[in-house]
Amino acid sequence: MKSDIFKKILRKIKQYETIVIARHVGPDPDAICSQVALRDAILERYPKKKVYAVGAGVSKFRKYGLLDKIDVTNLHNALLITTDVPNFYRIDGIEGLKFKEIIKIDHHPFEENFGGIELVDETACSTCQIITELLIQSKWPISTKVANNLFIGIVSDSDRFLLSYTTVHTFEIVTELLKRSKISFTKLYEKLYERPLEEIRFRGYLADNLIVTENHFAYVDISAEVIAKYHVDTATASNMINDFNYIKDVYVWCFVTHDVKNNVYKVNIRSKGPVINEIAGKYHGGGHKFASGVRTSERQDIDNLLKDLDNVCKTYKMEE
Ligand SMILES: [Mn+2]
C-alpha cells in the first residue's frame, strides 16, 4: 500500500537528524522543485534538523530556491532521499557521502533497486506529484514557498497537464494542494514560461531546420556553431522538445545537440506512439516510453540512433 510507504518515509524523516536530498544530473524543474520543496517542507516541520538539497546548481533555476553548497564527505549517518532519478549512477552531488539509509522517490520506469525504501509510482506525472501526496498525508502545513515549487514541478513535467501521464489522480492531488496552500497559481506561469528572446529566435531555427523523413520521423542535428550563433546553451533545445508536440503526421521527434566542450552529444526524443526508451537504452540513454534521452560521446551512436528511430516509425506506420 502506498500510504504505508508514505508513513514509513515520514517516520524515517522524523528519525534522522541529517538528511540529504539529491536528484538526477542535468536537472529539469521537476527534479529541482521536488528536492527543494521536500527540503523546505522538512525544515519547516523540523527546524532543528540539518537538511540539504545537493547537486550542481543551474542558474536559470535559482528562482525556485538555492541549493546547499556543502561538503557532503563531512556528513555521517545521514538519510539520503533521492527524487526524480531511477538509477544510482545518475544521482548528482553525493560522491563521498556516507549515508546510512536511502529512500527513493521517483516516477520514472523502474530501473534498479537502491537497497532502501523504494517509492516508485510510474503513474505519477511528476515527482512533485508524489511529494505533494506525501505532504498531504503527513498533515504538515504546506507553506506558500513549498506549494509554489510543487505546483511548478507538476505543471512543468506534465507540460501543463497535456502529457499522457496526467491522470484524474493528478488533478485530485493538485486540487488538494491548491485548497490547502491557497497559492496564486496563475501568477506562477510567468515564472515558469518567461524566456529570453534568443531562445524564441532559436526555436524558429529548430522549426525551420526540422528534417522529416517519409516514415514520419523528425529531427534536428544542432551543431556547436548554431548554439554559438543564437547565444543559447547546449541544454536549450532539450527544454524545447515539448514545444513540438502536435505536429501532424510526425510520430517521433528528436533534437541532437553537440556539446563540444564536454565532448558529448545530448539527445532528446519524444514519441506519439512508438516506444522509444528501449532504443535510447541501446545508446547509454533511457527514460519513459514516450519521452527519452541519450548522452554519448560517439558520433556513430547518433547516426545509428537516428536510423533506429526512423525504423521504429516505419514499423509503427505499417501497423497503423
Ligand atoms: Mn520528473
CATH superfamily of the largest domain: inorganic pyrophosphatase (n-terminal core)
CATH-scheme architecture of the largest domain: Alpha-Beta Complex
Summing up helix and strand content along with how strands pair, one would put the structural category as alpha/beta
Helix tally equals 10
The CATH class of the largest domain? Alpha Beta
- Give the fraction of residues assigned to helices: 25-40%
C-alpha-based Rg, rounded: 20 Å
Overall 3D geometry? Answer: globular
Number of strands: 11
Sequence of strands across the biggest β-sheet: 6-7-8-9-11-10
Mean pLDDT: 95
What fraction strand? Answer: 15-25%
In whole angstroms, how far apart are the ends? 38 Å
Structural account:
This protein is α/β, with parallel strands linked by helices and 320 residues long. It has two domains: 2-193, inorganic pyrophosphatase (n-terminal core), CATH 3.90.1640.10; 199-319, Roll (Diaminopimelate Epimerase, Chain A, domain 1), CATH 3.10.310. The protein is built from ten helices and eleven strands. The strands form two sheets. The protein has a six-stranded mixed sheet. The chain has a five-stranded parallel sheet with strand order 2-1-3-4-5. It is globular and about 60 Å long. The mean pLDDT is 95. The structure holds manganese (II) ion (MN). Manganese (II) ion is lined by residues 30, 84, 107, 126-127, 157. The site of manganese (II) ion (MN) has 6 residues, from loops.
